Amino acid sequence: MFSGSMVAVVTPMKAAGEIDFASWERLLRFHAESGTDGLVVSGTTGESPALSTDELKALVAAAVATLRGRMPVIAGAGTNVTAGTVERARMLCGLGVDALLVVTPYYNKPTQEGLYQHFLAVAEASTVPVVLYNVPGRTGVDLQPETTARLAEVPNIIGLKEGLADVGRVRKLVEQCPRDFVILSGDDPTAMAAIAAGARGVISVTANVAPGQMHEACHAALQGDMARARDIDSRLQPLHRALFAESNPIPSKWALSRMGLIEAGIRLPLTPLDEQHHEAVYAAMKGAGVDV
Fold it and tell me: Catalytic amino acids?
């Protein structure tokens, strides 16, 4: 159920910063029609720290209503406080999501035991599967493979999104965790290598802009056709890089606005893409076969 190209979808906003729900529905249909294998609401790319609880509820409810039976909907539930994360997890479970994505608690810098206890509390409160999310560059804490292996024994914890661009880490996780534990790449440039090392897919930024291409690359890799996967990915590599010309999701939102799918709205402290990057992002989109 949780494999292939799963998009960490942006949250569309109008110029003043309010959420654009008409564009949200358009994005949901775009992914349903483009082969995307799953959708993550309110992840890093969705500007999760900038969303209110009411906004999160509305986004998730719309995604579940539109996509139920077409692809799994995963909701970002993580905060840097265990009690708050448990409360959010219970709320999201009641909205009919297929799974929760729970990031390591940021800023606090917990120990590995603290991480274990945090995720255990969330899993015990959740009525849907829990996917761990490790992204040290954002959170300041690194969930170690040994801790992940302990958590993989918890019945309701079924996978991990690993944000490090480290294929060796993926191999170690595959070796240490149960065979049915789902490892997902969180790094587009190394996602094909991660799948070759045993990951089941990617939670992708690039899939916002090139969902069909990311689906095809992941499908080929999962089928063992690495030559085709690498061929598709070679055309996506410039786009992978361009979408991080500035902090994610700044470039992705600019690209989607050029595609006519959303307005270019974004919330402070993030700002619109600097003009010096426009040409490079546009060229990468064209090179990847994106219809601009």
Answer: 133, 161
